[in-house]
DUF1622 domain-containing protein (Synechococcus elongatus PCC 11801), 131 residues
Amino acid sequence: MVELEVFEKGLRILAEGTRLSLETLSVLCVLVGLLATLRRTSMMRRQLRHSSDLPFTKIRLGFGAWLSLALEFQLGADIVATTTTPNTVNLIQLGVVALIRTFLNFFLAREMEMEHRMETQARSAQDNTPT
């Protein structure tokens, strides 16, 4: 029995370290995504000095991809927390994060597909323009 208790304690410590690591990665993804988005926005502003129109969709989709990655890590952290201490609060957190992640990924994928389609149409229109 003592061996089992030692194993359970070790498993809890491992799970807690894994959860903390995943949550840290989640926060870092948001931070890196924010910095990358600010950098991209700044670069685009410099490139498009004479235009007030920034390609908002590309900037937003780029940041959304970072948020999606952060949610993946957060979901992993919640799964680890739920498996070691399955209580109502952990299960609700897991469900909420999974739901948000699912919706975000669905709409991101849809918008990225639409953006790709629009770029393809714009390229084919440029290729068909008489010179």
Summary: The two ends are 83 Å apart (CA to CA).
